[in-house]
Amino acid sequence: MNIHEYQAKQIFAKYGVPTPRGIVANTPDEAVKNAQELGGEIWVVKAQIHAGGRGLGGGVKLARSIEEVRTLASEILGMTLVTHQTGPEGKLVQKIYIEEGADIKDELYLGVVLDRAKEMPVIMASTEGGMAIEDVAHDNPEKIIKIAVDPAIGFQGFHGRELVFGLGITDPIQQKNLISFASKLYKLYMENDAEMIEINPLIKTGNGEFLALDGKMGFDDSALGRHPDIEDMRDISEEDPDEREASQYGLSYVSLDGEIGCMVNGAGLAMGTMDTINYMGGTPANFLDVGGKANAQTVAKGFEIILKNPNVKAIFVNIFGGIVRCDRIANGILEATKMVDVHVPVIVRLDGTNAAEAAEILQNANIANVIAATDLADGAAKAVAAAKQA
Hints:
The chain is an alpha+beta fold. The chain has 13 helices and 19 strands.
């Protein structure tokens, strides 16, 4: 689950992570009121969407007067903001954040992410603050510092020294400030079951203090039960409506750009299925894991969600029966075709528990657009062929 910048900064404040003062607004009038409350002569008007690159897309602008705050708020609220992370469809801006101006002497990048290979959180930092970290990694990978922190010992002084020396910070007071900042950020990450924290830019002010000028946070959905306060921050308007609907039925769904719908049980098998479709010359239209408790209703809902995508020209159902029996899935597919208008070819590969019974059920059903496959490669090839014929 992702949250907005203003929400991330609310959490930062609980842990003593320094940020500029700011107030969220939903209307231009609120934006003006917030700017007046903050005081000063310069304010930043920031679009609040779950995506990076807002500044490059025109969603972060500097206001030098109260009148300009109102003008910029009116322009940004209601706009469809397109960034490299939103896709070409962009995202509707429904909230803005009015933040006080800051004295920026230098810009850095600081983040905490999970390194699955090392099985540890990794603190990432760079002197190239304000730039997309993906571009830095591609063009100047040597400028990214990565410090793995073993959760068994937590953030220690040597981690902090490696961080400040790697960033070329030599002033003792600034070193102390940044080490303290990173220590708080790591604690925040661990105690809230975060998956990612990104501050870009982390600024150094004229007096040598460090402030989180931006803040992005993502959390492990499976751990939200331990953090109801964070779950309350969920903004469903920022989430894909099909993905949200799928989750209500116990389905894990992610929309993609291809033309072959995928319905699979198990995340690993789903990824392998998408890879095989690509290998066979096709493109998957989605990731859909029906899990181990699939029935006619969940399969029907899966078909319904997949077929909302007008680009889908065929569906590949690839089930390995371990927890779930193949004959149950076969009957579920047949029932689902009665409940949903499945107007594209459905290629079905069922293997594992009761696979022979499932094959017999599908064969006896004699439904024209349901095509049996013998294995993964055969199913992917038939799905690709069916999509091309369509």
